[in-house]
Every structure is written in structure tokens, then in C-alpha cells.
Amino acid sequence: MFFNLQGFLVEKGLKIKKIDHLNLVLMTIRDVGRLLITENDREKLIKGICDILVEKRGYYNAWISLFGNDKKIDLIADSGIEVPFDSIKKNIKHQQFTRCVEHTLFSKNIFVVNDPVKECTQCVLSKKYFNRSALAVRLEYEDKNYGFMVVSIPKELASDNNEKNIVKEISDDIAFGLYRLDLEERRKFTEQDLEQSRIRFETLIENSLNSISIIQNHKIVYENPGIRKIHGLMSKVFEPPEFFDVYLEDRARIKRLYTQLLSNKIRRIETDFRYCPFGKDKADQEIRWALLSATKIDYLGVESVLTNIMDITDSKEVEDFLRIQDKMTSLGRVTAGIAHEIRNPLSGIYIYLKALKKIYNQMGDITKVVSIIDKIELASYKIESIIKRVMDFSKPSQPQFIMTNLNDYIDEVTKLTSVTLRKSGIQFEKYLSPNIPKCFAEPHLIEQVILNLITNAAEAMKEFQGEKLITLKTFKNDNHVVISVRDTGPGIPLARQSKIFDPFYTTKSSSSGIGLSICHRIILDHGGSLKCQPAENGGAKFIIELPLKNKEVESGLI
Ligand SMILES: Nc1ncnc2c1ncn2[C@@H]1O[C@H](COP(=O)(O)OP(=O)(O)OP(=O)(O)O)[C@@H](O)[C@H]1O
Ligand SMILES: [Mg+2]
After folding, report:
1. In ligand 1, which atom is closest to the CA atom of 461?
2. I need a labelling partner for 544 at 20 to 30 A (CA). Which of 21, 124, 217, 271 fits?
3. Domains and their CATH numbers in the chain
């Protein structure tokens, strides 16, 4: 048996070559891996990988291109390329790809160009590719194509599946590295966005002139500092559970609303209340007005109440002043009207008294005395009734509003009226919608308005020939309770419509013309409106709209 030295040496040489080859592959993968972890600049990253592939792996050349946000190639790096490469780069940036690159756009698989000299005659690179092959592969991770990589390798390696696997593996690693950079970039943007919105939020809240606070378990856990600059003492205005700074008369109501909010009976509080900024115990306590808006929120995972409070004392004062001024103007007009109105009955009384005196002196016809006294009585009654109504109109009373369903009162007050109307040949119909919500009103004042409107309608139809019908309706319209009174009388000519609400405007010989102005005032005091419209059938129609604008109704629970 002969020892085959030559065969042994050849085999050993092959083994050593294989070990060298494996070492090169391992070092290449290791260096690419290191770069992928440490390099955050895309351009430097792909250039570094090209260099490793050429220097460590021994490829003839390598080039990598990446797509930008507009899906066009925006970066190209290369290593080992021996021919002028600029024209290819330029073409690629204009979406004109080489044959091997085009393949990567449509296929996930590695594309092998065995003999570029013959196969890629158009490509400038192929001139130098004698005895070389080229591999092209896309850089893809989770279905996103980041770009492509092309390497030039010895011809015999191109058919080696292991080598192809290595190229594929490296390309996958590059794509994953690019994905990591994408994530990193997005994280930075999100962080920047978050930081910016935090700063915006802080600037807004901290500098707000309103008092903003967050309450958890009846304790204030956050308070914005801005408010202290203006109203240093406003910070405790809304402090559960006792609300000591809330003015005594408003305290129970505020406590009730707060409890209702906590127990989800209402969705938010929107109300005004009075508070004592210097504490409730001070003898000369100052009372100020605050407007409160409160809702439930989740603050750092805990159920909390967010409050926003504004000091509205100044605007309340202006509002009061305007109301008084308005009343004074009306009062001036009313006084002039009174003088005018009571002058006639007064001079009547004077004349009748003179006549009485004459009869008494002459001891004339005593039977005339009774009729003269009757007339005096009537004239004094008229003066008294005018004065009473004027006083009602001008007295500075604060209506006592209650939360009520007006249907009940309207129904009751019109029962009697309809009988009287029927006796005068007037039909009366009422349609009270069962769906009208409760609203804040003083029911007796609303009754007074309804009666005034019905009386006017009846008076308008007294001499009227034709159908005599008064229709009263209640219904809900958007945020209002609407009450309408319509008649089939002569209606109100357009030119007169602007005057009918003026105090003492009347077209009747024995009336004072104060009814509608009182109605108007009452409805204004309710924050509503009273309007006159021509009715569809030619008569007059009066429409009252009462707002449903208090916090409970807004919260949709009433
Ligand atoms: N339904 C109606 N149809 C036609 N005209 C009306 C109607 N309601 C009011 N008017 C007109 O408006 C005027 C003013 O009404 P208002 O109720 O203020 O005073 P009045 O009824 O004349 O007097 P008072 O109500 O003080 O007894 C009336 O005189 C009348 O001309
Ligand atoms: Mg009237």
C-alpha cells in the first residue's frame, strides 16, 4: 500500500482553503453585524458595509442603494468599482436601473448574472467583468423594500449556494438594520412631538388666567400657578368636600352638583357661584362671582375632577349696571305714561266732585249723586289699577326661579279662561306637548304672560266677524321650551308691530297699553324672547322661547 502524498497534500490544501473561506465569511458577517449596531448614519452604514464586503470578504466590488421617503433612490454607496460609476449613479437616481437591479424590484430572490460581459453589454461595469459574476438582491424587511445591493464575485463562487445564502443573509441583516434606524427616527420624532405638545400644554395651562385644578379623592392634586398672579386667593375657591370658600347660600348647591358629578348623575358642571376670597369668617367679607366648569377625567390612571374657574365679578357688575340702567330708562317712559294716563281720570274726579258740591249746596236732585259716585269710583279704580301694574313692572324684584314643567301651570291657568272665552263666542284649543323638559322659570309670572296674551287675542276678536279661535301650544325646539298663542283675529299691521311692546302703546280706548311691555320684561328676565308674527290664517301669533341653558339640562340628564 502506497501513501498517496500528492493526494494527501491536495486534500489538506482544500481543507485549509475551506477553513480560510469560512473564517472570511464569519469575519465579514461579524463586522457587518457590528456596524449595523453601532452606525446610525444611513450613508456611512452602507458605505462601511460595501468596504467590508470588498476588503474582508474579497468581493471585487459592492454597491448599495437606498430608497428615500418618495420611493426614489436617494443614497448610493460603493466600494472597489474600477470604472467611472457616476453615469450609473445618475441614471439610478432618475429611476433608470441596470438589468440586475431591475430584477430586484420584482423578485425577492437573488439574481445571478453568470457572465456579465456577454449578458450585460449595455452596462459600463461589465467591461471589467471577465471571469467574474454579479449577484443582485433587494434589501427587504417585513415587506418593505429599502433598496438593493449588487456585488461582483469570482465566477466559481456564483454557482455556490452557500455563497448565495451568505449574500442573502447579509442583505437581510442590512434591511433589518435600516428598519431599526427607521424606528429610531420615528421614536425621535414622536419624542419631539410629545415634548412640544407638553411645552404647549404647560404654557397654556400654567399661564391661563383661569384657575385650573385637578381633584382626586376630594384633594387638590394639581393647581395651575398662572391664576395666582391675578387672584392670589382664588386657589381654594372650589375645595371639596366642605367648599368653605363658597358663599354660604351657594354652598349646598355646589356640594350637590359635585356629588352628582362624582356619581355620574351629571356629565359636567357648568354654573356660577359666589365665593368669599378672604375666608368665610371675616366680618367684612367680600363676595365675588366665579364661573365654574368641571368634568371627570382620568388623571394618571385615577378618576379625577378637572375644574376650570374664572372670576366673573366684573362682568356681573357690568351686567347688573346695564340691567339697572335699562330699568331706569323704562321707568322714565313709564312715569311719563302714568302722568298721561291718570290725568284724565283725575280731572274726571275733580269735575264730578265739583258737581257733587254743587248738588249739595243747592240740595238738588239727590238721585244724581249715586251715579256721580259710581263714576268717581270707576275713575279711582282705573288709577289704582294703573299704579298697581306699573309698580309690579318697575319693582326691582329678583324672580324666584324653580325647576319646573310649565305645562302643569299653563293647563291650570287656562281652564278657567277657556270657560270665559266660550261664553264670549271664542273657541279655545290647547296642545301641550308631553315632551317638554323642565326649565328654570317663575311659573306665576309665565301664567301672567299667557293670560295677557290670551286677553289681547280675545280683545282683538271682540268685534271681529269670522272664525274666533285661540290656539295655545307648548313644545320643545332645540334648546328652548316654546309657548305660542295664536288667534284668528285681524292681526297686527306691520307698521304697528314694532310699537306694541312699548309701554303705554295701545289702540284701545279704555286700556293702558302696558300688558305686552310687562310680558316682554318677564320673558327677558327669564333669558328668553317674546316675538310677534303674523299667523298663517291672518291673525296674530305670539311666540315665547325660554332657554334650557342651565347646567343640568346641558348635561342631558333632565
Ligand atoms: N292678538 C292681538 N291682535 C291684534 N292686536 C294686538 C294683539 N295683541 C296686542 N295687540 C295690539 O297691541 C297693543 C298693545 O297691547 P298691550 O297688551 O300692550 O296693551 P293693551 O292690550 O292695549 O292694554 P292693556 O294690556 O294694558 O290692557 C294693543 O292695543 C293692540 O293694538
Ligand atoms: Mg293687553
Report:
1. 3
2. 271
3. 12-183 (3.30.450.40), 211-311 (3.30.450.20), 313-396 (1.10.287.130), 397-558 (3.30.565.10)
